[in-house]
């Protein structure tokens, strides 16, 4: 008996099974028998055959049969339900002169996995950067010794790289206009500096 898997409610379960002669050769059923479905470990049998398709000699292959079960069929109200296991039987089939009753397969409906619910995060605390895409950031520079917002940090880095004027041990950093001082930095040497410290 093969386990077919854990299916979502309303899905279609399909599987193939085989019939053989006593010598092991593939053989067609003389009497098809009836596909029956049982719920859990009880003797509760589905009373309706609606939604169950038994195709003998599938694709003209002798001894290969296709069974399809439509779990959305609610003719037997409430029989197919989440958190349950099901067994599929063939009963009263005649194969090579013998009457055969056998368990073919079993499956479950949403009984082997957990449901994950994805919610919405409405807490925007800590999101300081509001501009996006082509929107311009407001120019700003943090004062010496104070914490800075992300836009301020970006402008300070840009200014040091693009608008710096070094004279002696003083590096004067300008704002976007190129004339207004944003901050000044002090170098430890006018010729071979190894450290730099913000002054204003």
Keywords:
36% strand; mainly beta; 200 residues; 1 helix; four-stranded mixed β-sheet
Describe the structure.
The protein is mainly beta. The protein folds into 2 domains: 2-109, Immunoglobulin-like (Sandwich); 150-198, no CATH class. It is built from 1 helix and 11 strands, in the order βββββββαββββ. The protein has one helix at 150-162; strands at residues 2-7, 12-18, 34-39, 52-55, 64-70, 84-95, 98-109, 164-167, 170-174, 181-187, 196-198. The strands form 3 sheets. A 4-stranded mixed beta sheet has the order 1-7-6-3, with no helix packed on it. Strand 9 (170-174) and strand 10 form a beta hairpin. The longest helix is centred in the C-terminal third of the chain and has 13 residues, at 150-162. 10% of the residues are buried. The mean pLDDT is 91.
In short:
This protein is mainly beta. The chain is built from one helix and eleven strands.
CATH architecture of the largest domain: Sandwich
CATH topology of the largest domain: Immunoglobulin-like
Shape: rod-shaped
Major sheet attributes: 4 strands, mixed
Tally of helical runs: 1
CATH level-1 class of the largest domain:
Mainly Beta
* Low-pLDDT runs: none
- Share of helix among residues? under 10%
Q: What kind of assembly state do the chains in view correspond to? A: single chain
Topology record:
Blueprint: E1 2-7, E2 12-18, E3 34-39, E4 52-55, E5 64-70, E6 84-95, E7 98-109, H1 150-162, E8 164-167, E9 170-174, E10 181-187, E11 196-198
Parallel strand pairs: 1-7
Antiparallel strand pairs: 2-5, 3-6, 4-5, 6-7, 8-9, 9-10, 10-11
């Amino acid at each position: 008996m093969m386990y077919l898997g854990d299916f979502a409610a309303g899905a279609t379960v399909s599987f193939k099974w085989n019939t053989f002669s006593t010598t092991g050769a593939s053989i067609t059923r003389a009497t098809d028998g009836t596909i029956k479905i049982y719920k859990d470990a009880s003797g509760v049998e589905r009373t309706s055959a609606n939604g169950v398709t038994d195709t003998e000699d599938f694709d003209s292959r002798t001894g290969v049969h296709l069974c399809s079960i439509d779990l959305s069929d609610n003719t037997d109200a409430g029989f197919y339900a989440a958190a349950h296991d099901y067994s599929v039987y063939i009963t009263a089939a005649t194969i090579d002169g013998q009457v055969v009753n056998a368990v073919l397969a079993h499956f479950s409906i949403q009984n082997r996995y957990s449901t994950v619910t994805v919610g919405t995060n409405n807490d925007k605390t800590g999101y300081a950067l509001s501009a996006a895409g082509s929107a311009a950031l407001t120019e700003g520079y943090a004062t010496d010794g104070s914490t800075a917002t992300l836009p301020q940090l970006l402008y300070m880095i840009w200014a040091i790289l693009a608008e710096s004027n070094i004279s002696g041990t003083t590096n004067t950093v300008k704002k976007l206009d190129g004339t207004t001082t944003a901050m000044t930095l002090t170098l430890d040497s006018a010729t071979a500096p190894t450290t730099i410290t913000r002054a204003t």
